[in-house]
Queue: 2 jobs
Job 1
Amino acid sequence: MNDNYCKDWNPFIEKGVNPKVLLIGHDPRLQSSDTIANYALFSDYYFDDKPKKGSEKKKFDFATKSIGQVLEITNNKYKADKIYVTNLCNESLPYAPKGKTVLIPESIAKNGFE
């Protein structure tokens, strides 16, 4: 896997499960980090047991909150395996100076949306 690229999350498509909900987001905590998640919003952690290590636990909590929010606003109409998770930009952007935000270039955001 490219270290500068984050994959969309929904491996269930390969098992014939079609997503019903699209979650597009970003992790605002990454403004002060150069971490690239393996999957958008660390979504793969949602399906794992809760880790004991600090940074892994934070990733699990973030995934749980992200997917949990979708479950809540859909009134649990869909299960987590029906959610397709992506970022508008799954590639690494220039590192943001402290306290600043790097905006996603429009061409990359359009590509991510497609």
Job 2
Amino acid sequence: MSSSGGFLVVGQIGRDLVLRIDTMPDSSGAAPVLERSELLGGKGANQAVGLRQLGADVAILGVVGDDDAGAAVLTEARAGGIDVEHVRRRGTTALVVQIVDGNGTRLLEHAPEESLLTVADVEAGAAAFERADTVCLQLQQPAEALLAAADQARRMGARVVLDGAVTGAHRDALLAAADVARADARETGILTGIEPEHPDEAERAARMLLAAGPSVVALGVRGRGDLVAWTGGSRFFPFPEGGAPIVDPTGAGDAFLAGLVAALRRGASPETAGADAVAAAASTVRRLGGRPDLSRL
């Protein structure tokens, strides 16, 4: 394992356009925008931002466009203290439009094929794996690139973290290489065939995943909370009742992952790491946009 340590996030980097409106207009109507922001986004970048806010050294391996948006997000990432040395540039930068109103959040995503990682990209970023002791793999990337990244991480002796879901034979290989896995309720259904709506269902799904390789798993329970399970134990963290209202739930999962793995890297128990993850998610949903806001934690 590298003596320098730190995190490497392997995943999507893009541009987020966040628009808050009062209500969605009819198909032929229009609505005034009450609040607008454009910022560094994508699940991989959001996780890297959260980890950096929690004090970790963080590098990211992903793809941005050879365009003005790509230059802008790289500048923002550098300003936030994220190492972007191994980010690849080509094509058009991925874009996510978030429309937030009183009924929730709607996402419009444009992730062109050239914005996704390839095996060649992973191989070109080999030096980043040498400097990391924890590698977070965001599973919305192509499976072949993820497997190449998992192999690089294991050869370097790094902890491997999976976020999301993947199907088929790639699922088994990635789970076998993983130390930590996190999935929301829908992703848990893809991984296990159980889409938890009750903590007992999450517990059954967690035991299936633990048997496949990871030593810690964190699973969402639809509308109820999150279960963190490990060999020999588990704890369910229900969503808090009352308190500050949820402004935008978009970045909760990325903040949760950052809080969880940052705590595990510090040597915290899975139960304590789960509590840190819940606090990170709660901090993020109180503001507009998917970008975490964890520096005060």
